[in-house]
């Protein structure tokens, strides 16, 4: 048993009226002791559920991210790039109700020479949704065996890469079992949205569900000196923009006194569908993905157009959201995304 960790546990777990928030350094220590196994399983489980009940603060999340930065893998700066690396913060427990769009968004960005990094794990509690790693595998891209050197090479040569939790951050992967055992998503799930395993100039584009989470993320990023961010109230907590509802987005803006502003994106303004694509079964979803890549009309097309257009605009490639959307409309009439996918496969298998 760690007596030092027990004192931190007592702070967050003392009850509604007597608990205390951790300082940034204390949160870093707590996360480090959980990741490295200094804390016992009983202590880790107790901390995670107590921290969830108390609710984390932005300061605590910043400290825990410090531990992730200390212990997790990192990719190096890409040579000869005109854009910051886009890091997609997507819930690791996947999707269960709506079709994921982010893998196609990543291909669109990479095709336009905007480097993009995704990260995630395998099928994960408590949602057990469709994870990113399985989608890429169905596209012929097996990312589970990447060494960190090969992940760097893939990024340098194709503008796309992926960090796989069991392979590149096994310390964090060991904590996944606690999600099953406590039956809830702990605050660690918020860290996954914010993790930036890259040493160069980056742009975090992360999803969220609840407004308090967006506020905590903003506070944590500010403490860690992160200036470029886009926080999207997207489908199932992902950074996929919605067709069926107005998408609320928080973006950094140094001209505003608060340092940020909110955008509202309406799909109907661009003559796009008002219905998000349901994830009825995986096989049908994969079929629609392949149709899209081959330049054919797909049920995913409108969602891809909205998301791809927004990301091209937000990343600085397009001068306006409309221009970004027009660019993606034209792109989807070709098989250029399929060519980009084949390029990724070639480098991966070389």
TrEMBL record:
Protein name: Anthranilate phosphoribosyltransferase
InterPro entries linked to this entry: Anthranilate_Pribosyl_Tfrase, Glycosyl_Trfase_fam3, Glycosyl_Trfase_fam3_N_dom, Glycosyl_Trfase_fam3_N_dom_sf, Nuc_phospho_transferase
Keywords: Amino-acid biosynthesis, Aromatic amino acid biosynthesis, Glycosyltransferase, Transferase
One Pfam family cited in the UniProt record for this chain: Glycos_transf_3
Keyword ATP-binding on entry: no
GO terms under biological process: L-tryptophan biosynthetic process
Gene3D superfamilies for the chain: Nucleoside phosphorylase/phosphoribosyltransferase catalytic domain, Transferase, Pyrimidine Nucleoside Phosphorylase, Chain C
UniProt lineage: Bacteria, Bacillati, Cyanobacteriota, Cyanophyceae, Oscillatoriophycideae
Every Glycosyl transferase family 3 N-terminal domain range: 6-71
Domain Glycosyl transferase family: 97-334
GO molecular function: anthranilate phosphoribosyltransferase activity
GO CC annotation, single: cytosol
Enzyme nomenclature, EC number: 2.4.2.18
């Amino acid at each position: 048993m760690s007596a030092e960790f027990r004192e931190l546990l007592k702070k967050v777990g003392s009850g509604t009226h007597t608990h205390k928030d951790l300082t940034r350094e204390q949160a870093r220590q707590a996360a480090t002791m959980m990741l490295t196994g200094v804390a016992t399983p009983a202590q880790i489980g107790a901390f995670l559920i107590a921290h969830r009940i108390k609710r984390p603060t932005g300061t605590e999340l910043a400290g825990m991210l410090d531990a992730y930065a200390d212990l997790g893998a990192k990719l190096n700066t890409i040579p000869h790039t005109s854009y910051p690396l886009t890091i997609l913060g997507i819930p690791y427990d996947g999707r269960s109700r709506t079709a994921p769009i982010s893998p196609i968004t990543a291909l669109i960005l990479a095709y336009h020479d905007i480097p993009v990094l995704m990260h995630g794990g395998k099928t994960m509690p408590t949602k057990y949704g469709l994870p990113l790693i399985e989608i890429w595998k169905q596209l012929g891209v097996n990312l589970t065996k990447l060494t960190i050197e090969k992940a760097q090479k893939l990024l340098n040569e194709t503008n796309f890469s992926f960090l796989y939790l069991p392979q590149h951050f096994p310390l964090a992967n060991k904590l996944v079992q606690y999600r099953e055992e406590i039956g809830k998503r702990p605050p660690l799930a918020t860290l996954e949205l914010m993790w930036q395993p890259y040493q160069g100039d980056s742009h975090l584009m992360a999803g969220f569900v609840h407004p308090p989470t967006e506020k905590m993320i903003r506070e944590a990023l500010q403490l860690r000196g992160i200036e470029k961010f886009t926080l999207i109230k997207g489908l199932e907590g992902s950074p996929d923009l919605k067709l069926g509802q107005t998408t609320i987005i928080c973006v950094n803006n140094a001209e505003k006194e608060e340092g940020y502003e909110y955008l509202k994106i309406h799909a109907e303004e661009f003559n796009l569908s008002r219905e998000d694509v349901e994830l009825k079964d995986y096989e049908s979803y994969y079929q629609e993905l392949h149709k899209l890549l081959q330049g054919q009309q797909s049920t995913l097309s409108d969602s891809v157009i909205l998301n791809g257009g927004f990301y091209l605009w937000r990343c600085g490639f397009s001068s306006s959201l409309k221009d970004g959307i027009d660019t993606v409309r034209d792109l989807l009439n070709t098989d250029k995304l399929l060519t980009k996918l084949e390029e990724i496969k070639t480098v991966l298998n070389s």
